[in-house]
Design goal:
The complex is a heterodimer.
Chain A (H helix, E strand, L loop, with lengths): L8 H10 L10 H23 L3 H21 L3 H11 L3 H24 L19 H17 L3 H8 L6 H25 L9 H28 L4 H5 L6 H6 L5 H18 L7 H13 L27 H20 L9 H21 L3 H10 L3 H23 L5
Helix pairs in contact in A: 2-3, 2-14, 3-7, 3-12, 3-14, 4-5, 5-9, 5-12, 5-16, 6-15, 6-17, 7-8, 7-14, 8-13, 8-15, 16-17
Chain B lengths: L2 H24 L4 E2 L1 H6 L6 E5 L16 E2 L2 H4 L1 E2 L4 E2 L2 H10 L7 E5 L5 H12 L6 E4 L2 H7 L29 H8 L6 E4 L3 H5 L22 E2 L16 H9 L9 E4 L5 H12 L4 E4 L2 H5 L19
Parallel strand pairs in B: 1-7, 2-3, 2-6, 6-7, 8-9, 8-10, 10-11
Antiparallel strand pairs in B: 4-5
Helix pairs in contact in B: 5-10
The chains are: A mainly alpha, B alpha/beta.
């Protein structure tokens, strides 16, 4: 029997089997669903571009959010997991990915600054860059956020992409973060009057010049990378694996190396600053929590000075669609599509432990975000990229808070 | 380069500069059109300055060659809440390469509110006829899909010397009180929204109540600033329409006018129209309602009867 164009479909299949070929199969369901989600994101991007107001900003927010979600999921760019890999296994690869993101961000921001504010020595700060006040409250925010990461298992950006992976903790961590935001707003006025109002806003290029701040930042990051490489243990497992060269599998199925994830995270951060505002994932969550608490009459009529600081703004927006809201929507949807395609979408029924750890950790994450004026993305990444001392200080608090909480939690057999 | 080509190039440069200079000179009014500005972008005798209020809007794309003024720091004394001192203004003008012999085009977001405020401060320090507003501001430039740029363009500093501040352009509380007490014949034009004017609200939605009293200055008349603007593209209405608009409330240029709003920046938009477009004698009251509305015991008109803090 020959295969010809006028053979029926069944004959064709039969002939194929006789010829020893594999039976034709539809691609697995997960690919189809992933394709549908990807198409839905594309349609949303088109519709926001047609009907949004202001259309270009909203549309680009959605696009960058989707790109960010895809990259986070593919590289599994989770600040806490990366830190845990280092603590437990001295695996430096994840941390090197974060350093890559910071190097790209620092260089990219400096490039933009040269055009936007050619002289950094005056009284002015570059527009909208996340350069926050440096003081005890910021350190406390870092510690709380770090503890929240250790308890809930991720930072806010990672909870968002894990929402797309069907994580049983992420939804509760995000609800907890909303509560933490409200607690943060409730304690804001006291801490503001006690310390934040006196905390200086420190921007490295003002003291060191653009060149000096860039060189100093790169030197610190480079030295850290060198230490990590010296002290770390490279995992041989990876090297012995058969190198997968199929580009489709490399992009959509296999986990990306951290340095590649970091490279893209840095580039998306620079693109967001150039065209929209510094990268951040908490503005929408914060402003919706504030809207809710204000609606319930829980908050003081005035939050002193809060809205005058740079960072992930929590000003209440009256509109349904906001740039940060669309950014988050794109992030979660693209992470969902990416996780589906890679077979990493594994929803699980949450247990009591998931709920409790999510809520408690989430509250700390939210509280820390209010006083840090952002999270690992908005304050650490966008802050260090911007040459802000606040980014570094928040980062130090973060590391200390996570490490101590994790070790203590393990000793008490509460964390694993 | 051969002698012939040198002459040819020189002639071309000369012709071009004559044409551009001619165009710049031809623009005698207080407004320039977007079309004129695009044609004159490379004229060395034109300085374009953006005065917007939204942070980052200039940096993320501005009219090619434009420089930036941050309204809330460059043009004011931030601590004493005053307009910039003469030395500060002189330093700014020199840095921008502004002088009496260059055409300065100001523009900005929000219907040129802050650009008009800039024109008022420039005027106080002796830069008047050579300072113009881009009709329609940023809004019209963007609507017409004209190009924007982000690269900084180096500008040669000027040696501008600041003049004595022209006090006739700035109304102080005493001038306003004199008008209220009929000791001067100045008319007060309040350009806030009808609800602010009547005292139903103390400040527009989204703004803190920076005054404790509601209502308006007795004897003032109300023409909201936006009525002077074509909503479609942000351009000003024609001088005839503007004359008619203000004549309806008895402001016809026969008596001096004091423009007032909440903090004095929307009112500078109307000040620009009265002073520069219509040629009326006008002063801007930058203390506005945040000053008058807070002075204990001064006469007030509060038709709505709103009392701050009372429930």
């Amino acid at each position: 029997m020959s295969i010809s164009d006028d053979s029926g479909a069944l004959d064709y299949e039969l002939a194929r089997r006789q010829a020893g070929a594999e039976p034709i199969r539809l691609p697995p369901l997960r690919f189809i669903v992933a394709a549908v989600v990807a198409a839905a994101i594309a349609v949303s991007i088109y519709l926001v571009g047609r009907h949004g107001d202001p259309a270009p900003q909203l549309q680009l927010s959605l696009i960058l959010g989707a790109a960010f979600g895809f990259v986070l999921q593919r590289a599994r760019f989770c600040f806490f997991c990366i830190w845990k890999d280092w603590l437990d296994r001295r695996d430096p690869r994840g941390l090197l990915g974060i350093l890559t993101a910071l190097v790209v961000g620092l260089a990219g921001y400096t490039l933009i600054y040269g055009a936007w504010l050619p002289d950094p020595t005056g009284a002015r700060l570059p527009p909208t860059a996340h350069i926050g006040p440096v003081g005890p409250a910021l350190l406390l925010a870092g510690l709380a956020f770090g503890a929240g990461m250790a308890i809930s298992g991720s930072c806010i950006s990672a909870h968002l992409y894990r929402l797309g992976e069907g994580s049983p903790t992420a939804p509760f961590a995000l609800i907890g973060a909303g509560l933490g935001f409200i607690l943060g707003f409730l304690s804001w006025n006291e801490l503001y009057l006690l310390t934040i109002s006196d905390s200086p806003v420190l921007w490295l290029p003002r003291q060191l010049g653009y060149g000096g701040a860039l060189v100093a930042g790169l030197a610190v990051l480079g030295a850290t990378a060198w230490c990590l490489l010296r002290a770390g243990r490279s995992s041989d497992q990876e090297a012995s694996q058969k190198v997968q060269t199929d580009p489709v599998a490399t992009i959509f199925l296999r986990r990306w190396p951290s340095w590649l994830g970091g490279l893209f995270v840095g580039l998306i951060g620079v693109a967001a600053y150039l065209r929209l505002s510094p990268l951040g994932v908490t503005a929408e969550l914060g402003s919706r929590s504030r809207q809710l608490a204000t609606g319930l009459d829980w908050l003081p009529a005035r939050l002193e000075g809060l809205d005058s600081f740079r960072g992930c703004a929590t000003l209440i927006r009256e509109t349904l669609l906001t740039p940060n809201g669309l950014f988050i929507a794109g992030l979660v949807a693209a992470a969902f599509a990416a996780a589906l395609a890679a077979g990493e979408f594994k929803p699980r029924r949450p247990t009591g432990g998931h709920v409790l750890r999510g809520l408690v950790g989430g509250v700390l994450l939210g509280w820390g975000t209010v006083f840090g004026l952002g999270c690992t993305v908005g304050t650490l990444l966008s802050g260090i990229s911007a040459g802000a001392v606040s980014g570094w200080v928040f980062g130090m608090g973060l590391i200390a808070g996570t490490t101590v909480t994790l070790k203590l939690g393990r000793r008490l057999r509460l964390l694993d | 380069m051969s002698v012939l080509s040198f002459i040819r190039r020189g002639a071309a440069v000369l012709a071009a500069s004559l044409a551009l200079g001619g165009a710049a000179l031809a623009q005698t009014g207080p407004l320039v059109s977007t079309e004129w500005l695009e044609k004159n972008l490379s004229d060395p005798k034109v300085r374009i300055v953006e005065v917007s209020v939204e942070p980052g809007i200039y940096e993320r794309g501005h009219i090619p060659g434009a420089q930036n003024i941050a309204w809330h720091t460059d043009l004011v004394e931030t601590v004493s809440r005053d307009i910039a001192r003469p030395e500060k203004f002189q330093a700014l003008a020199r840095k921008l390469g502004v002088d009496k012999d260059v055409t300065v085009v100001l523009y900005g977001d929000n219907n040129n509110w802050f650009a008009a405020w800039g024109a008022w401060v420039f005027d106080i320090y002796g830069l008047r006829d050579n300072v113009k507003l881009l009709d329609g501001g940023r809004k019209k430039w963007e609507l017409e899909k004209r190009p924007v740029a982000t690269n900084p363009v180096p500008v040669k500093a000027s040696s501008f010397t600041v003049g004595e501040p022209n006090k006739a352009l700035r109304a102080r509380l005493t001038d306003v009180v004199a008008s209220v007490e009929k000791k001067s014949d100045a008319r007060i034009l309040d350009i806030r929204s009808p609800d602010e004017f009547s005292g139903k609200i103390i400040a527009p939605a989204g703004f803190q109540e920076l005054a404790l009293r509601a209502g308006h200055i007795p004897g003032s008349v109300n023409v909201p600033w936006a009525r002077a603007v074509n909503q479609a593209d942000g351009t000003l209405k024609s001088p005839e329409e503007l004359k008619k608009l203000y004549a309806e409330v008895g402001i016809d240029g026969s008596k001096p006018v004091i423009t007032s709003c909440r903090i004095g920046e929307r009112s500078s938009h109307t000040w620009f129209i009265l002073s520069r477009v219509l040629g009326y004698q006008a002063a801007n009251y930058d203390g506005s309602w945040t000053e008058y509305g807070n002075v204990v015991g001064l006469p007030i008109s509060n038709p709505a009867g709103t009392v701050w803090g009372g429930k």
